[in-house]
Structure prediction request, 293 residues.
Amino acid sequence: MHKIEAKGILSQHNGMNLYRGCTHGCIYCDSRSACYHMAHAFEDIEVKQNSIALLANALKHKRKKCMIHTGSMSDPYLPLEMELGYTRAALELIYEYGFGVTLHTKSDLILRDVELLRRIHQKTKCVVQMTITTLDETLCQKLEPNVCTTQARYAALKQLQKMGIPTIVWLSPILPFLNDTVANVCGIVDLCIDAGVYGVLCLGMGMTLRKGNREYFYQQLDRMFPTYKDKYIHTFGDRYWVESPAHRELSEQFFTACEQGGLVHDPQKLFTYMNAFPSNPSPTQITLWDPSV
Prediction:
């Protein structure tokens, strides 16, 4: 871990990353790609130590309420969050200033903040996005070794449902020859139906591979799945988008399963839902954070 002074915290589209880098160890992570120009080791987490002050200032001066997004490049619930609590502090500000939030994570550590998320959703809107890649717990521990397994994420989704917080599952990535089976894809959809999720987001039955994450992915294949790297190279060459040979069947089965289960699965509809700030949020409550107090 190392700390920096950031110049800003919210992107043009209100995205926020309090940390940079990750220790989850997911073997397929696109955030390792060289195009993101990370100047430090990926596991050496960059902490924006002035991020909470920057966020307070940004929210205070925004003319229009909106959804704040976090988790696109670095999981907001890294193990380091237990020590630093930046995500918790950011959520408290989002609640106090009357904004909405959507978080993308793989970690059941989010349950630490479930009561705060519930209060945000009652006041404005909160959506939790959870990535699930496989029903096979052993495979999950290989693909995503330093974060909770699928069953723990499923339990977290159930708890969020119980608290009235809407959830969306990312069925991503689909790794050719590893988790690209009808049983896995449809099994995850069934799990989502049982967990009461709003929708399932799948941007294709494949994965991205480019400089940086490609090399790391191949190293891990050599370590855990001997011969698979050669199979990838022979099948896909140096393509950026690596698509499962079974993508047509998987897509058809995915769409059918979602339709039968009443899950929203159109990406545009899901992104629109996540980005939409409620037109009639609950009245802002006066709190110690309210500048009028």
